[in-house]
Amino acid sequence: WIDEIITMIAGASDTVVSALSFLLLTIGHHPEVQERMFMEIQEVMGDLDRDVTAADVKAMKYLDQVILESLRLHGTSFLIMRRATNDTKIDSCTLPAGSRVMIMLHALGSNKKTVPKS
């Protein structure tokens, strides 16, 4: 059971590290986003020498949008598996009930039909 605990802890920390790395990479390539985030932080925090509160984080709407967009573009999960519960027709293809369906999350998050401005 020790192996399972180590795997769970490593997996959890790895996804956080990946998400933060992609976030930093993304804002590093967009200085205008970085500047707007900093302005929002200054506006919400006022005194930058104090600790950040939960209310501060909740008030930072643009920061939240940037984080969510980074996760959409560079999610830490690449695919998910699901099972069709009913016969399902998609365009000219029919998925019989019980079929396994693999959903590529990156493709879904960058599809012009589902995310028009991606």
UniProtKB/TrEMBL annotation:
One of its GO terms (cellular component) is endoplasmic reticulum membrane. Its main location: endoplasmic reticulum. It is a peripheral membrane protein. InterPro entries: Cyt_P450, Cyt_P450_sf, Cytochrome_P450_Monoox. Coiled coil: none annotated. Its cofactor is heme. Keywords: Endoplasmic reticulum, Heme, Iron, Membrane, Metal-binding, Microsome, Monooxygenase, Oxidoreductase, Transmembrane, Transmembrane helix. It is found in: Endoplasmic reticulum membrane; Microsome membrane. GO terms for molecular function: heme binding; iron ion binding; monooxygenase activity; oxidoreductase activity, acting on paired donors, with incorporation or reduction of molecular oxygen. SUPFAM superfamilies: Cytochrome P450. Belongs to the cytochrome P450 family. This is Cytochrome P450. It comes from Homalodisca liturata.
